[in-house]
Amino acid sequence: MIDSLLGCGIFAIGDCMARPYPKFTFQDYLLLPEDKRYELIGGDLLMVPSPNTKHQRTVGNLYRYLADYVEAKELGFVFIAPYDVVLSEFDVVQPDLIFVAKERASIITEANIQGAPDLVVEVTSANAEQDRIIKRKLYARYGILTYWLVDPEAKTVEVLELDKEGYSTKASFKEKDTLTSSRLPGFKLPLNKLFK
Q1: CA angle 125–75–106, rounded 5-degree value
Q2: Contact, 180 vs 171, CB < 8 A?
Q3: Res. 146: pLDDT tops 70
Q4: DSSP state letter for 186
Q5: What count of Cα atoms within 13 Å lies in the side-chain half-sphere of residue 151?
């Protein structure tokens, strides 16, 4: 899969005129059947595999804590996959969790999010390579300020913050630590609760 992206799309260095097949667009994406999950990255259509139980429990736990905090502080909106984030005509993703600050609520439409959220969360599973390499570059390219990589197997959370060079690791949390983030001042989540 990565090989197919190296020549074009998010890894392109200049034009990609020699592409051996046409790029899929957001309009093509809208025609897909709704019984499966897809993402569109650099015009390449990727089917998202069904997540396992540990992944789903972790996403559910994190959503509950994050949504409760954001609602109590009236900071904005939290969404859970499947929910489209349209970054461009050729890039449509469904992060596991999405936070949009209330000041930027105009990017939220009835159908999806149009533009870069303030925070995205990916809980790694079978597609860990995609989350750690491909999506990391994609999210940085479109200016998503904060990216959390949650690994339910290792019981860790890596907090990445965007700077001029792309993402850098702002903090790494292990099972006995408490997750915090500068994007959500005052938010605290003991990871033993997240991974229970």
Answers
A1: 85
A2: yes
A3: yes
A4: T
A5: 15
What would the DSSP string read from start to end of 72-132? HHT-EEEEESS--EEEETTEEE--SEEEEEGGGGGGB-SS-EES--SEEEEE-STTHHIII
Say if residues 163 and 143 touch (Cβ distance below 8 Å). no
CA 137 – CA 139 distance, rounded (Å):
6
Q: CA nearest 98: which of 194, 88, 82?
A: 82
* CA dist., res. 70 & res. 184, Å (int): 8
| pTM confidence score | 0.86
Give the CA count within 13 Å in the CB-facing half-sphere of 27: 1
Please enumerate in sequence order all residues whose Cβ is within 8 A of that of 183, keeping only pairs 6 or more positions apart, or say none: 99, 118, 119, 145, 146
Q: Residue 82: is the preceding peptide bond cis (ω within 30°)? A: yes
Reply yes or no on whether the pLDDT at 43 is more than 60.
Answer: yes
Using DSSP's 3-state secondary structure scheme, residue 164 falls into: coil
Burial environment of residue 60 by CB neighbours within 10 A (0 to 12, 13 to 18, 19 or more) = exposed
3-state SS, residue 147:
strand
